[in-house]
Task: inverse folding
């Protein structure tokens, strides 16, 4: 079974010997690969919807892995008992939904040593949730597959981190080589690790964001409302700032 590059990247961040929970597992491809590869000793595939849940049950049965992968139906972390897993993966949903799953299941996070999260959008909302709940972002990746751009966020409880980096230092205001100031708010949007290793996909993502903002500007220009004018000014400032950031970054770092 060949995983997508996106799921493989997530798998690569799961420590050997882990007990995994993959929430919103759909076809249970990640837990299946995690067990087959010998990376995980056990896994739980959580699914809230009937179709994906049935697909996960079928996948696990046909792979002969019913002894090591439990497929459970339920909303978010409610499928878990406290202390049951070391690593939780949640991939392929919006950052707001992932943050809400973590928030509603916060009691299930004690004992969890690592979160590997892949928001499709709303990465800043998810970074903000992690920051506000004592989870330290230790690494981030951005990749493109089949014309879509994905970010993968890896986080550990700040109290367990052996690194010198803390949430305070990670999001501390700093300036880029060209002099542009990165505020905590912009570090949450851009990604505090991604901005340090800006690969071509990072550039492509933010060029595409500029295109989206320009398209919103064109729509707003048709309105005479004062609120539309104010929103336009904010968007223009954001576009100018993103352009300045991109111009300060090396283009060929990976
Ligand atoms: N994780 C897989 C991946 O990244 O390829 C599947 C992603 S799929 C786009 C999102 C899945 O999350 C769907 O199967 C959906 O049913 C499930 N899902 C959405 N909200 C959920 C929730 N609150 N709890 C559990 N599963 C959820």
Result:
């Amino acid at each position: 079974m060949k995983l997508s590059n996106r799921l493989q990247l997530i798998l690569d961040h799961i420590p050997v010997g882990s007990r995994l929970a993959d929430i919103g597992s759909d076809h249970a491809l990640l837990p299946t690969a995690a067990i087959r590869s010998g990376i995980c000793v056990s896994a739980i595939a959580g699914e809230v919807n009937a179709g994906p849940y049935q697909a996960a049950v079928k996948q696990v049965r046909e792979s002969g892995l019913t002894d090591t992968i439990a497929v459970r139906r339920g909303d978010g972390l409610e499928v878990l008992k406290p202390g049951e897993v070391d690593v939780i993966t949640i991939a392929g949903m919006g950052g707001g939904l992932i943050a809400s799953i973590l928030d509603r299941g916060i009691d299930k996070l004690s004992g969890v040593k690592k979160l590997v999260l892949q928001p499709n959008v709303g990465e800043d909302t998810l970074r903000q949730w992690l920051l506000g709940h004592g989870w330290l972002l230790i690494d981030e990746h951005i990749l493109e597959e089949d014309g879509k751009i994905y970010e993968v966020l890896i986080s550990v409880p700040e109290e367990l981190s052996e690194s010198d980096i803390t949430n305070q230092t990670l999001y501390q205001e700093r300036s880029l080589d060209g002099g542009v100031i990165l505020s905590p708010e912009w570090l949450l949007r851009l990604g505090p690790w991604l901005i340090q290793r800006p690969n071509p996909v990072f550039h492509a993502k933010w060029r595409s964001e500029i295109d989206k903002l320009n398209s919103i500007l064109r729509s707003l220009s048709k309105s005479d409302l004062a609120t539309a004018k104010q929103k336009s000014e904010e968007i223009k400032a954001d576009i100018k700032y993103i352009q300045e950031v991109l111009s300060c970054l090396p283009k060929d770092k990976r």
Summary: The mean pLDDT is 96. The CA atoms of residues 45 and 71 lie 5 Å apart.
